[in-house]
């Protein structure tokens, strides 16, 4: 009868402009799908060129090489007898579109351009592409000669259409279209489309995965049908980590779930599902059936091919499963770790160097590297040949097998405690003990000689010697002396990253890791060009609160007992003189606000789009039990004053793993001026007027 259809989706670790590697991974996914009996294979958004090409989309080379890869796919025997759905940019009548190219047996069936472009947050698709605004309209697309020579076709359909096979009907969505209020799957479903596909380039944000899953399941819950979602995975060249989670859903329930975090470059999900279950489900939704009679029909591209077999009564079909979500602490442990692995292997460096201060932030960064080592050893144990080959290249040993995370950590991870006369013995001991427990190659050094030399040059030139405030110096002197220490640590970090392996008789250099969290960046509580300046920062998009919870997770799951004393110690920069051998400086006292308050300010500023006055209005209600309106006004003014004074630091912020929607990353996510009128005179006057009225 032809009821059981077998379909495949995948998560691929594609890399922007890596056409050769991207093609190889696409072929592998098709081979796996076919070997498991699939008759349709869906891949991620723009998988041929890689999603993160950015302004390279303007280049004709990107279009040319994408078509060259498409030609390789079309002419290969590997793509025969399976409908292949791949993503690439296409130029149609001199307009660039983000497209799906769907083909079968050396014939292109349809080129479907994206209708709703992602243009918020980290996404800038309207910069490079134009949305297809001609609903249910199809035009002729004239194929380039390299494709004509393979397919024998001169033109193919281009536009908003669906595929009608012998046994069912398939409709396409591309990433953002699932999130849009008028998603195409709504009317496609009413028009009889039974299988919806979605090719995504969706990146990881803490606590976001459930939203994606809920959207997919609700799409078929209301309308019936099969929904297949593919997604990019890994770091494809910038701050984002695409978190997989390929899935297949039917009639509102998940039937197949892919991993969110994995070192596997290719992951394929295959499901066999009964079309009659869709028809039965839809039969009793009277509101759907009434609406179906009014819908404008989609153009149908007829395909002489079936996704099912004629004799499939005994074919087993997939049953619903319960989706398993990671906790935020697990997400921090896994997401940035996978991102670091991609960056390390693709940059062809020999490991990482981290200035380890013995505080929560640098310790959390060290734990993420340790988690990465765990993931590498686990992947090798599970037979991942790609990970094994990459590990051998990194350590420069063709026979090496990473089995123990601590031993692997020793090879690729160097930690460095940079003491000064203002450092306590406690932080030194904490850093050393954590390094021992994770297995890193640990260095202790003292920066006092370098600090004295730098300050000595200043004194020799000016005849003046700056002093800390505890010794009678001004606030300017105090801050300058702190900054000298911080900046010397950055210089030393890069020196040791370049030459530490040389001193050990090993080849290569190390990537320097930064460890400023998202809240400190927002407040500007960091020295410009200090150890926050690094090659990459795995925690730059994570809040202090989440990092503390992650540290507790590492204590329990990695048995890193050294973290207990780090958790209990107050955060401190240790840049001012000790008092009777003890730390007198603390972060929250320096900042004039708590980390918990900073998280709230950050979410209101970015996510709630609140300026000073709106933030004040929201907080007088949120904090009415603990603060008077006048106290709230004082806190809001202090935050905005400090934020605007320090905003210039965001222009040089180390590229950080994006994990929070209130990140102040100036690169493309949080676009703001960096020269403000820091008095905020008009805004603060509105706040004062409201405070007086409330008083």
UniProtKB/TrEMBL annotation:
List the Pfam families: CN_hydrolase, NAD_synthase
Q: What is its EC number?
A: 6.3.5.1
Q: Which GO terms describe its biological process?
A: 'de novo' NAD+ biosynthetic process from L-tryptophan
PANTHER family for this protein = GLUTAMINE-DEPENDENT NAD(+) SYNTHETASE, NH 3 /GLUTAMINE-DEPENDENT NAD + SYNTHETASE
Q: Which InterPro entries match?
A: C-N_Hydrolase, C-N_Hydrolase_sf, Gln-dep_NAD_synthase, NAD/GMP_synthase, NAD_synthase, Rossmann-like_a/b/a_fold
Q: In which pathway does it act?
A: Cofactor biosynthesis; NAD(+) biosynthesis; NAD(+) from deamido-NAD(+) (L-Gln route): step 1/1
- Signal peptide: which range, if any? none
Gene Ontology cellular component list = cytosol
Indicate whether Hydrolase appears among the record's keywords: no
Q: Which UniProt keywords apply?
A: ATP-binding, Ligase, NAD, Nucleotide-binding
Per the database record, which ranges form the CN hydrolase domain? 5-275
Q: Which SUPFAM superfamilies match?
A: Adenine nucleotide alpha hydrolases-like, Carbon-nitrogen hydrolase
The molecular function terms in GO held by this entry are: ATP binding; glutaminase activity; NAD+ synthase (glutamine-hydrolyzing) activity
Listed under subunit, the entry gives: Homohexamer.
Family membership noted in the UniProt record: In the C-terminal section; belongs to the NAD synthetase family.
Protein species of origin: Rynchops niger (Black skimmer)
Report the protein name in the record: Glutamine-dependent NAD(+) synthetase
**Domain of life of the organism encoding this protein:** Eukaryota
């Amino acid at each position: 009868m032809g009821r059981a259809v077998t379909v495949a989706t995948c998560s691929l670790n594609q890399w922007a402009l890596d056409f050769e590697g991207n093609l190889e991974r696409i072929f592998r996914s098709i081979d796996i799908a076919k070997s498991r009996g699939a008759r349709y294979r869906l891949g991620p958004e723009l998988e041929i060129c890689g999603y993160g090409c950015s302004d390279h989309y303007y280049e004709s080379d990107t279009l040319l090489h994408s078509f060259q890869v498409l030609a390789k796919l079309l002419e290969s025997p590997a793509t025969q007898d399976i409908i292949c759905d791949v993503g690439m940019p296409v130029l149609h009548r001199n307009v660039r579109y983000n497209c799906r190219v769907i083909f079968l047996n050396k014939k292109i069936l349809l080129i479907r351009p994206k209708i709703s472009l992602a243009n918020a947050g980290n996404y800038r698709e309207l910069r490079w592409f134009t949305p297809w605004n001609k609903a249910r309209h199809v035009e002729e697309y004239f194929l380039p000669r390299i494709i004509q020579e393979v397919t024998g076709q001169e033109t193919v359909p281009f536009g908003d259409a669906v595929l009608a096979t012998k046994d069912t009907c398939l409709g396409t969505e591309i990433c953002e279209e699932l999130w849009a209020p008028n998603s195409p799957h709504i009317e496609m479903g009413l028009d009889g489309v039974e299988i919806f596909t979605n090719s995504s380039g969706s990146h990881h944000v803490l606590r976001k995965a459930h939203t994606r899953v809920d959207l997919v399941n609700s799409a078929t819950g209301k309308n019936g049908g099969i929904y297949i979602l593919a997604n990019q995975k890994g770091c494809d060249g910038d701050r984002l980590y695409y978190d997989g989670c390929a899935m297949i859903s039917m009639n509102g329930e998940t039937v197949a779930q892919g991993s969110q975090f994995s070192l596997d470059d290719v992951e394929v999900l295959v499901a066999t599902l009964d079309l009659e279950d869709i028809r039965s489900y839809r039969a009793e939704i009277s509101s759907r059936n009434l609406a179906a009679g009014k819908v404008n029909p989609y153009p149908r591209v007829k395909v002489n091919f079936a996704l099912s077999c004629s004799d499939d009564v005994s074919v087993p079909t997939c049953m619903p499963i319960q989706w398993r979500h990671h906790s935020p602490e697990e997400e921090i442990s896994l997401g940035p770790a996978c991102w670091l692995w991609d960056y390390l292997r693709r940059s062809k460096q020999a490991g990482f160097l981290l200035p380890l201060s013995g505080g929560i932030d640098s310790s959390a960064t060290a734990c993420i590297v340790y988690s990465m080592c765990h993931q590498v050893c686990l992947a090798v144990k599970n037979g991942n040949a790609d990970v094994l080959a990459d590990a051998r290249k990194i350590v420069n040993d063709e026979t090496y097998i990473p089995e123990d995370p601590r031993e692997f950590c020793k090879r690729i991870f160097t930690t460095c405690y940079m003491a000064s006369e203002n450092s306590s013995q406690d932080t030194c001991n904490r850093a050393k003990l954590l390094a021992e427990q994770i297995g890193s190659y640990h260095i202790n050094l003292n920066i006092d000689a370098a600090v004295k030399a730098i300050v000595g040059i200043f004194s020799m030139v000016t005849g003046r010697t700056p002093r800390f405030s505890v010794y009678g110096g001004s606030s300017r002197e105090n801050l300058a002396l702190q900054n000298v220490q911080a900046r010397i640590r950055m210089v030393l970090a890069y020196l040791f990253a370049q030459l530490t392996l040389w001193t050990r008789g090993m080849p290569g250099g190390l990537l320097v890791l930064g460890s400023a969290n998202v809240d400190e960046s927002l407040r500007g509580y960091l020295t410009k060009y200090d150890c926050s300046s690094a090659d990459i920062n795995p925690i730059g998009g994570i809040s202090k609160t989440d990092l503390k919870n992650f540290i507790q997770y590492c204590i329990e799951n990695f048995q890193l007992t050294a973290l207990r004393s780090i958790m209990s110690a107050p955060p401190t920069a240790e840049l001012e003189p000790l008092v009777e051998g003890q730390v007198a400086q603390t972060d929250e006292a320096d900042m004039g606000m708590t980390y918990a308050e900073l998280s709230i300010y950050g979410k209101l500023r970015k996510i709630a789009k609140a300026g000073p006055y709106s933030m004040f209005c929201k907080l007088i209600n949120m904090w009415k039990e603990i603060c008077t309106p006048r106290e709230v006004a004082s806190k809001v003014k202090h935050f905005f004053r400090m934020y605007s004074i320090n905003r210039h630091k965001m222009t040089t912020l180390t590229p950080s793993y994006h994990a929070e929607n209130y990140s102040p990353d100036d690169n493309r996510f949080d676009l703001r001026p960096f020269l403000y009128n820091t008095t905020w005179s008009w805004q603060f006057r509105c706040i004062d007027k409201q405070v007086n009225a409330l008083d």
